[in-house]
Amino acid sequence: MFRRGESIQIKSPDQLAVMRQAGLVVALALQAVSAAVRPGVSTRELDAIARECIASNGATSSFLGYHGFPAVICTSVNDEVVHGIPGDRVLDDGDLISIDCGAIVDGWHGDAAVSVPVGAVADSVLALSAATQASLWAGLRQARAGNRLSDIGHAVELSLTAAGDYGIVEEYTGHGIGTSMHMHPSIPNYGKPGKGPVLKIGMALAIEPMATLGSAGVGVLPDGWTVVALDGAPAAHWEHTVAITETGPWVLTALDEVRLGPREPR
């Protein structure tokens, strides 16, 4: 996705503050869409809610028109891992829908995703989503100056493997973010620690673990966007944009102010 040797964009405190504004719009949109999730609602209706929320908060969509993508959110249901296109699909009781959203304020991007149960969902699927969310926070806690990039993916992998026998998707990764939605570096959700660039104050990263109840194999549907688990197993996707600051990770797409503080003593 990125050129070899490409540098990681460094933001000033003022620029990160604008990214927080974009991240808050994303958080508000995800809150509104999540509240509307229920059996009988269509994914197109959810997209309309996100559109209105983004526009009413003075932002524009990161997704709409991106390489031709036709919506402001991705709606991935059950075995759809990421990049599902909103449309006529109606949610059923027992579904799990992953909702991904991006917004732009004054040229700066925020990007986040949540997985939302629809009605009564199987315990195993709820556990998958909870484990994927927990692995996201494990990765976020490693977004600190002085760490190496691979420390993030290593923490995600350790968290998921400790939680259960889940398939960790390797083909799709987190990414740098700032004046573009997808920037250097790629951030895999697995790997050995202590590898890759040193993380520095002013970097911003979108960390997004994706996991399934089955194998890690994925493929893309004929629509050219929707990524599905090849074995048909349910999948979950969670994401936050985080800034690396002097005082620790600052989660820019959290609804409430979340600063994870200094490193915990070993």
Characterize the overall form: globular
Proper CATH architecture:
Alpha-Beta Complex
Question: Structural class, please?
Answer: alpha+beta
Major β-sheet annotation: 6 strands, antiparallel
* The first-level CATH class name: Alpha Beta
CATH topology: Creatine Amidinohydrolase
- Quickly count the helices: 4
What labels describe this entry?
4 helices; 26% strand; alpha+beta; globular; Creatine Amidinohydrolase; 6-stranded antiparallel β-sheet
Explain this structure to me?
- By secondary structure, the chain is an alpha+beta fold.
- It has a single domain, classed as Creatinase/methionine aminopeptidase superfamily (Creatine Amidinohydrolase, Alpha-Beta Complex), CATH 3.90.230.10.
- It has four helices and 16 strands.
- Strand 11 and strand 12 form a beta hairpin.
- Helix 1 packs antiparallel against helix 2 and helix 3 runs antiparallel to helix 4.
- The model has no long low-confidence stretch (mean pLDDT 96).
Describe the secondary structure blueprint for this structure.
Elements: H1 13-36, H2 43-56, E1 60-61, E2 73-77, E3 80-82, E4 96-105, E5 108-117, H3 123-140, H4 150-163, E6 167-168, E7 174-176, E8 183-187, E9 204-207, E10 210-212, E11 218-220, E12 227-229, E13 235-237, E14 240-245, E15 248-251, E16 258-259
